[in-house]
Amino acid sequence: MSRNNATIAGLVTAALTAGLLTFALRPPVAVAPRETPVPAPSQEKTVKKAALLQDVNATDSLNRVDASRHMQQLLAELHGKPPENVPAYAKELQSSHGYITMLLWMDLRTQEVKTFHSTYPKGFNPQHPQLQQYLKAAKRAIRGHQSYESPSIVVGKEKYYFTARRDQEGSTAVIALINQKVLGRVADHQLKNLRLIPYPKEGSYRIESVHADTLQDIKVATGHDNENASHYYENEIIVRFSNGHPTKAQLQTITADIGGKPPRKLGYTYLFRSEKMNYSQLKTYFAYKWHPQYTEPHYIYLTNETAFENPADVVTPNDLLFSAYQWNLPAIETTQGWKLSRGSNEVIVAVVDTGVQANHPDLKGQLLPGYNAIQSGSTPDDDVGHGTHVAGIIGALVNNGEGVAGISWYNKVLPVKALDNSGAGTTYSVAEGIIWAADNGAKVINLSLGNYADSQFLHDAIKYAYDRDIVIVSAAGNDNTERPGYPAAYPEVLAVAATNASQQKASFSNYGDYIDVTAPGESIASTYPDSQYAALSGTSMASPHVAALAGLVRSLNPDLSNDEVVQLMRDNAVDLGTPGHDKYYGWGQIDIYKTLQAAGGGEIPLQLYPQHVRQQMNELRLKLQRNP
C-alpha cells in the first residue's frame, strides 16, 4: 500500500471510530418541552411597550447607582486635599461625565461652598421652584448626616434629580444635579429598536419601502408593518456585471445614460446613483443594455441592538452594577466559564454597528482604532448608543469597580461604524464594514442589525468573511415574526434569538427554522454614550453574548475553524422548548462554561473530530490532485 493510500485509510478509520464514540457519549435528550408564549399581533404593541418601560426604569436605577458612586469617589479623592484642589477634580469629573449639570462642594467645618456648573441646556432655569426645593432638601440632609436623592424633576423637556453624599468623616460633602436625558434617549432608541414606530420614516433621503418578498410598494404606517417591509434608496441600484468589471469608458457611458456620478465600487459590485431615474427605471436600463449577473435595491439595515489565569473558585467581579443588574451573565454560566477562558488580545471581535464611544471609562484599553464606513476618514464614534451598548456586553472592563462587566476580559473590540446617526445603514456601508473587518484581523464579527430582503450583495460580503475563517453572528430581529431576517438567515451566519430571565422566548424576538441559538436579550445593562449606562432589550443585545463566547472559544483553542466554533456553541447550548432544534430557541440558550469545557485547549474536541478528519482528507485530496 502506498504512503498516500495508507494515510487516507488511517483517516477513514479515525473518522469512523470518532463517529461511533461521539454517538456513544452523546448526552441524553432534554426533558419535555415547556410551552413557548408567542404574543399575538394584537398584543405585540402592549408587550413591547412594557419592555420599553422596563428598560427606561432599569436605566434610571443603574445610572443613579453609578452617579452616586462617582460622588463617593470624588469625596475619597479630595479627602485631605486643600480646598484649592477642588476645582481641578470637579472639572475633570464634569468633562468626562457630561450629565453632571451642576456640582456643589461643601466644607462642613468652615461652611465654605464651591459651585461648578456644566453647560445648561437652552431655556434651563436654575431658579426653577422644584429645583430650589430639592436643593434645599439635599443641603438639609447633608447637615443631618444623611445621604440624599431626589425624585425626578421635569424642567422644560428634560428630567433632572439631585444626589448628595458626605465623606466618611462628615467634614465635606458634594451635591450634584444630574441630567437624565439618557432616559429620553433610551426611550427613543427602543421605540425604533423594538419597531414600535415606522422606522426609518419614508420621505427622508428619498427612501422607499417595499414588501420583502414581492418588492412591491408597501406603506409602513405602524411599527408592526416593519415585519413585512424592507427599505431602500429609490434612486440607487446595486449591480454585479456578468463579465467582471466594466471598462472606464463603459462606466462613463453608464453615468451619462443614467444622469449620475461615477459609481462606488466594492469587490465585484457597483453602486450607481441617478439624478433622473428611479430604481425601477434603473433596473430596466441595466437589464436591457448590460445584462448583469444581478441587480438589486440599495437596502437599508436597522439596529436589532493578558496571561490566562485559572482560579479555583468562581469569579464574582466587583463591577458596581454586576450583582444587582447583570442577571444575564450568571444565566449563561459566564462566571464559571471564566475559570477556563477570559479571552486573549490576539482574538479580535468586530462590532459592525453605529460606532463606539472611544473614551468610555468602562471600555478603556478594550477598543482598537476601527473604521468609519459612513464618513470616510472619520473615527467610528457612536452618535446613537447602540454600538457602545453592544461593545460593552462583549468587552466592558471586568473587576475595575466601574459600571458593568463584559463577557470577555481580554478580547479586543474592533468598532466599525456602518450605521448612521439615525441607527440605519445601507447595504453598501454594512458590506463595506464587514469586508474591512475581515481584512483587518477580526476573528469574530457581530452584526446586531437586519432587513427582511435577501441581498446578494450583502451575502457576497458575508461569504467573503466566512471564507476567511471568521465566525459571523447576527441578531434575528425584534418583530415577533417567523419571517427570516438577513443577514441572520444566511447559512454562513449564526442566527441569535432572545430570551428573558425565565429562559423563555423574549416577547419581541423573531423566530423560525433558521435560528441557531438564543441568548439573554431583555433589559441588558451595558455601556452607553456620555460615559453612562443603559438597560436595553432586543435581539441586538442577545447577539453580542454569542459573539463574545465565540471570542472566548477561539482564545482557548485557536486551532478550531469557524464552523467548529459554531458547532460547539450549538452542541453545548441548554435545550429549551421542544427537545432538539426548534424554531423558537434553535438548539437552546448558550452555556459559556459547557462550551469552553468542550472546546478544550490546543486539541480538537471529540465531537468535532469527524469534521476535523474530513477537513484533513479534503486537504490531502486537493494536494494529490495538484501532485498526482
From TrEMBL:
GO molecular function, one term: serine-type endopeptidase activity
Tree of life domain: Bacteria
Record-level GO BP terms: proteolysis
UniProt key word Secreted: yes
Ranges where the Peptidase S8/S53 domain occurs: 345-588
Keyword terms, alphabetized: Hydrolase, Protease, Secreted, Serine protease
GO cellular component: extracellular region
One matching Pfam family: Peptidase_S8
Active site, renumbered: D353 (charge relay system), H386 (charge relay system), S540 (charge relay system)
Subcellular location: Secreted
Record family assignment: Belongs to the peptidase S8 family.
Listed name of the protein: Peptidase S8
Species whose genome carries this gene: Paenibacillus donghaensis
